[in-house]
Amino acid sequence: MKITDITIDRFKTTSRTVADADGHGHPAPEPYETTSSVMRIHTDEGVEGVTVGGNAALVESIVKPLLIGRDPFYREQIWHLLNERQRLHKGTLSDKLICAVDLALWDLAGKATHQPVYKLLGATRSKVPAYASTMCGDELPGGLSTPEEYGAFAKACQDKGYSAFKLHTWQPPIEWAPDPKMDVAACAAVRDAVGPDMRLMLDPFHFYDRQDACWIGRELEKLDYYWIEEPMDEQSMSSYKWLTDQLLIPVVGPETMEGKHFTRAEWIVQNAADISRAGVGDVGGLTPLMKTIHLCESHGVRCEIHGGGPGNLAALCAMQIPGEYYERGLLHPFVDYETPPPHLHSIADPLDDEGNVTIADTPGLGWDFDWEWIAAHPID
Amino acid sequence: MKITDITIDRFKTTSRTVADADGHGHPAPEPYETTSSVMRIHTDEGVEGVTVGGNAALVESIVKPLLIGRDPFYREQIWHLLNERQRLHKGTLSDKLICAVDLALWDLAGKATHQPVYKLLGATRSKVPAYASTMCGDELPGGLSTPEEYGAFAKACQDKGYSAFKLHTWQPPIEWAPDPKMDVAACAAVRDAVGPDMRLMLDPFHFYDRQDACWIGRELEKLDYYWIEEPMDEQSMSSYKWLTDQLLIPVVGPETMEGKHFTRAEWIVQNAADISRAGVGDVGGLTPLMKTIHLCESHGVRCEIHGGGPGNLAALCAMQIPGEYYERGLLHPFVDYETPPPHLHSIADPLDDEGNVTIADTPGLGWDFDWEWIAAHPID
């Protein structure tokens, strides 16, 4: 089988969230029209691999010259080619774009073999406990604008079946943010609202210094929180090693620091975090995410998966040690997460009454596109 | 798909090698009748996974109760179950038996999806440079009984196309073995016979002390050898850390030390070897071998694969960094390696004129059994 073409279809769709000046998502006042895209890897045997995303110009200039004519089952070779090519295309050939290519190749492998990807990887389970992962704090009354509102939302999530809840608290451009005391107040209000049994985690502002991060961590220990995530700039591994030494609560990371599985290996050797972390988008696809997971297993270190979506869910269903939760969201009291956007027939991560997400048993990664809708709403 | 049964067929076949009192293979005076077995994992959909080996009593008592009724694509789950069950069955439920189960499950996955296993893993290549790996030294005139005979055999391998050659030298029960000076004399004779360009490696007696191992290593440096392998008891990781500090020539290991990918992680963290090492039989299958490879890649450490056969070849064709050679053998001047035993239609590792082994593109792991022959030569 040979790759014959890679195409990107841009189309109109509807969104319920808007990004603030720092790039964090919040509820939109009304659903509004936006654009999205799907990338398709075509083969001479008619099998296609599909994923969301992809940049048409970069696919044309960098990806296609490397991939056309290759066997799409040579994922490992292709991933290394892209990884090496990245050196001279820093900031252009992003880990996210490599991720899109890798996910499309995995989708293709699943479709060619009539298997869901998690079974190709070697499955461990078909459902995973999820935590409700909030959007960042805001100034929308009734939303996530006060500690009490976080508490009320956590209780609503608990009532829906979730066994775990993670706060993203207030960040710039909110004028008074960040504020360690407000972070801890929100965490306390959540613990107060849900009682002692729900697993709780915090992912606060990412540029606190060591002292603020440590103070927050110690307060979370008193509140019986399950982990603390990225409270400092991950470019300083030394800061994380210091923080991990100071705290009893598990420190989770790295998440956004570049360097893929190689960076995770360094953090493990240095004991810079208690629990490792990666998602398909952070490390350049499902191929390096599985390597990260295998690295972590070899060292007896948990790896909590960053973000949701079909690629991360496939990884979670093919790992036993050390991944625990699916990150579901980001969620907000004002945003309907359960109804798919118009270009999808269904969401990839349906929740059951016990707070678990079940993976699709359809061939490939499990995207459930509405191709008619996409065809009817083209851009260009 | 569900696993419905696991069966072992024992049958008569022919062998050209005999084991000495220490378990090392040597040429048999004549081909002679021996026994072998194939393990088959059966499913409710008629697809079977097959591999060589398997112990009928242990499969019945330990493996079947764990596997019957499970989806054979749940390899990761099954591997962890067997790994945990091993704790109370030390020495009974061996890594080799877990390996056989895992290889049969991979073979099954390949057959169910009509893909060779190296493509399911994500391929990098379809052929791999091989090194000629000798049997241990002997006292058979014209065989491997003198340094000069090693030299002549290396030259014959070079003429056949091999670009690399590894000596296994003299060990007990040979009366005068081990002898560091004889090891080095054989290595010198080989270098002399093949000239400067062939890659040469040594895998000597495995229980030298630090001083002997270091002396041999320094002599190999003068002879421009490519690596030294397992010259000391691997139960002492400290000895390997010491040796690796002393030598410029890369030290390769661990190979036989138990603990699977977990042990490889410890050796990497401690810099106990320059190059890691594992084969499917050492770590309990292809599943943990790929984890070892991913671990090594994450740390920028090469991993040379121990032993041949379809499982190891599949791994080598799905890794780019850091695996270099296929270990072909064990070879001896008196033994015809190229002609398959009567229960196989063809060998799994055919050599081309340039010293490469090419992997089969048939579904599964690529065993090419002669089922008629096996059926016609049953034992019980």
Could you give the topology of this structure?
2 copies of one chain form a homodimer.
Chain A: E1 3-19, E2 25-43, E3 48-52, H1 56-67, H2 75-85, H3 95-113, H4 117-121, E4 127-134, H5 147-160, E5 164-168, H6 180-194, E6 199-203, H7 210-222, E7 227-229, H8 237-246, E8 251-252, H9 260-269, E9 276-278, H10 280-283, H11 286-298, E10 303-305, H12 310-316, E11 326-331, E12 356-358, H13 371-376
Parallel strand pairs in A: 4-5, 4-11, 5-6, 6-7, 7-8, 9-10
Antiparallel strand pairs in A: 1-2, 2-3, 4-12
Task: Describe the protein in words.
2 copies of one chain form a homodimer. Chain A has 380 residues and is α/β, with parallel strands linked by helices. Chain A folds into 2 domains: 119 residues, 2-Layer Sandwich (Enolase-like, domain 1), CATH 3.30.390; 240 residues, TIM Barrel. Helix content of chain A is 37%, strand content 21%. The first copy, chain A, has 13 helices and 12 strands. In chain A, helix 2 runs antiparallel to helix 3, helix 5 runs parallel beside helix 6 and helix 9 packs parallel to helix 11. Chain A starts with a strand and ends with a helix.
The average pLDDT of chain A is 96
Which two chains form the greatest contact, residue counts included?
A-B, 39 and 39 residues
Oligomer: homodimer
The shape of chain A is globular
Largest sheet of chain A: 7 strands, mixed
CATH architectural category of the largest domain in chain A? Alpha-Beta Barrel
Number of contiguous helices of chain A: 13
In terms of per-residue confidence, which ranges of chain A show pLDDT below 50 for 5 or more consecutive residues? none
Give the CATH class of the largest domain in chain A: Alpha Beta
> How much helicity do the residues of chain A have?
25-40%
Q: Spell the H/E element sequence of chain A.
A: EEEHHHHEHEHEHEHEHEHHEHEEH
